[in-house]
Amino acid sequence: xxxxxxxxxxxxxxxxxxxxxxxxxxxxxxxxxxxxxxxxxxxxxxxxxxxxxxxxxxxxxxxxxxxxxxxxxxxxxxxxxxxxxxxxxxxxxxxxxxxxxxxxxxxxxxxxxxxxxxxxxxxxxxxxxxxxxxxxxxxxxxxxxxxxxxxxxxxxxxxxxxxxxxxxxxxxxxxxxxxxxxxxxxxxxxxxxxxxxxxxxxxxxxxxxxxxxxxxxxxxxxxxxxxxxxxxxxxxxxxxxxxxxxxxxxxxxxxxxxxxxxxxxxxxxxxxxxxxxxxxxxxxxxxxxxxxxxxxxxxxxxxxxxxxxxxxxxxxxxxxxxxxx
Length: 325
Hints:
14 helices, 2 strands, 2 domains, mainly alpha, MetI-like fold
């Protein structure tokens, strides 16, 4: 009898193994279209970017003619020695340092406010989420119109909507985006746009986290007579810290890749009158591509990738110590 049982077990194990193998084949078959697209449009371009970055003076047109390129780091030296590289790097870093903390703080406060109300909650969520589904270039054009000073003879004379508003409080008109405007004024407009455009997604994520918080914590704090401010810092923030960590990390990644907002406000010139004073690292990459300087563009992309990797690693390290799961 024992021999029969062992034989049956072996047969059953073989059948189950065959079923598992068939299921694996089916799984790979179903995944194959997505994997093929990822290989063609994601993995290969990434590997090719690394290759072009380390080919000195790589030029997409020259290679068609059979020109050979030596391996080295000349592309990286060219990018770093670029006249406006420091400006591009400074703009990119400042956009992240300024916009991420402000937008995250505002989103958290708005999410807490939305979570505490019941009437018209869905309506307010929809209103706050609308900017996220609106084209960023279109929003940039609207911001440009809001901050632009217009003067066409006697027909149109306006300092712009924003200048008209601050003029009520006795503030002199400021040249925000017109030709001759300062770098600081331009940075203020861009940061305002990015903060306004980034808040909706963060509200959605944080509000979802707040709605999953166990209400017993708040009831216990209420019984103990804990103030709302202390409840916010001791209960709300620790319990939504995983969502906060996710929002902060993704915000930094998005901030380092900022480009479309500046194009929407200032056009492809990346500044008033095309002076490029608001250019970023991504803007530099796009500027190199039409000139067939694929080597320099690839090197700049890898530099940006390295910066994002370092910042993400730092955020991840801090999250392990501060986030409460």
